[in-house]
Specification:
With 122 residues, this protein is mainly beta. 3% of the residues lie in helices and 50% in strands. It has one helix at 28-31; strands spanning 4-7, 10-13, 18-24, 33-39, 46-51, 58-60, 68-73, 78-83, 92-99, 109-112, 116-121. Strands 2, 4, 5, 6, 9, 10 and 11 form a seven-stranded mixed beta sheet that branches. The radius of gyration is 13 Å and the shape is globular. The model has no long low-confidence stretch (mean pLDDT 94).
Length: 122
């Protein structure tokens, strides 16, 4: 079972930046597609960004395009989510996930981290 551990969350003012990291227990980033999802209080979990195994395919939800950047470092088995120009509506628990195909569909991801909280104050 692949284990994923997110870190880097915290409290930041609107307009600020955070970089989330997702460390995998094994060669996940070069073997699996990786995605970031988020869940705000009282809402369903939603897709944020995804990157293919080769890095040739990257997807973002519209609300974060131009502000968030997903990347990965295969040597460190780590995937990152750089978040700039943060808004209060970005407040959520952020989860990374590993799957066999790069997709926006949550059900295609089989391995999930425990999440890291991001809170953006206005």
């Amino acid at each position: 079972q692949v284990q994923l551990v997110e870190s880097g969350g915290g409290l930041v003012q609107a307009g600020g930046s955070l970089r989330l990291s997702c460390a995998a227990s094994e060669r996940t980033t070069s073997t699996f597609a990786m995605g970031w999802f988020r869940q705000a209080p009282g809402k369903e979990r939603e897709f944020v960004a995804a990157i293919s195994r080769s890095g040739s395919q990257i997807y973002y939800t519209d609300s974060v395009k131009g502000r968030f950047t997903i990347s990965r470092d295969n040597a460190k088995n780590t995937v990152y989510l750089q978040m700039n120009s943060l808004k209060p509506e970005d407040t959520a628990a952020y989860y990374c996930a590993a799957g066999t195909v790069v997709t926006v569909r949550e059900t295609e991801y089989r391995n999930w981290g425990q999440g890291t909280q991001v809170t953006v104050s206005s």
